[in-house]
């Protein structure tokens, strides 16, 4: 991979940042969906309902159709939730990155750039409230191109923000 460097967000990065965030989430949907299917509750529903239908009706066709219907329904619901999250993010903090991440004390937004292309993004700002009596720095909107490993080089920037009043870094991961 070509060399890259990390710098603070600038206004001309607005469109590439929003595009990278959207494409990052949409590109991960198949693997995230497979992960969701492995969760015990989802696994129980996906296999339990068709099995119950088979026991009740004795019809293998009904069992297979219900399995396909449940998989399709789960996929469409999952896809809808991801698209809604992207839309909400693009219309909230990613609409005005300067105001959301660069105007407050202890917050920042960085882009990783390679060959004049934005290949990674991450925002950091103080968490909404102290957790356990400590102030946390929350990493948000972390996204990157496939094959780009740049997060470890964020350490100096994060260290500087930690000296500005946060005790530790909080990374919330949700699927």
Automatic annotation (TrEMBL):
<dbReference type="GO" id="GO:0008080">
    <property type="term" value="F:N-acetyltransferase activity"/>
</dbReference>
<keyword id="KW-0472">Membrane</keyword>
<keyword id="KW-1133">Transmembrane helix</keyword>
<feature type="transmembrane region" description="Helical">
    <location>
        <begin position="43"/>
        <end position="76"/>
    </location>
</feature>
<dbReference type="InterPro" id="IPR050769">
    <property type="entry name" value="NAT_camello-type"/>
</dbReference>
<keyword id="KW-0808">Transferase</keyword>
<keyword id="KW-0812">Transmembrane</keyword>
<protein>
    <recommendedName>
        <fullName>N-acetyltransferase domain-containing protein</fullName>
    </recommendedName>
</protein>
């Amino acid at each position: 991979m070509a060399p890259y460097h990390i710098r603070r967000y600038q206004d001309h990065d607005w469109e590439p940042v929003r595009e990278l965030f959207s494409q990052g989430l949409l590109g991960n949907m198949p693997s995230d969906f497979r992960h969701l299917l492995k969760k015990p509750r989802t696994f129980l529903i996906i296999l339990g309902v068709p099995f119950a239908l088979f026991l009740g009706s004795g019809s293998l066709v009904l069992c297979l159709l219900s399995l396909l219907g449940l998989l399709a329904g789960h996929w469409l619901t999952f896809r809808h939730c991801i698209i809604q999250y992207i839309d909400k993010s693009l219309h909230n903090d990613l609409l005005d990155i300067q105001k959301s991440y660069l105007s407050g004390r202890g917050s920042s937004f960085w882009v990783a750039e390679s060959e004049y292309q934005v290949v990674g993004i991450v925002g950091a700002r103080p968490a909404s409230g102290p957790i356990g009596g400590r102030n946390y720095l929350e990493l948000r909107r972390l996204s990157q191109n496939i094959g780009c490993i740049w997060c470890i080089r964020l350490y100096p920037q994060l260290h500087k923000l930690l000296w500005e009043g946060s005790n530790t870094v909080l990374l919330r991961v949700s699927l």
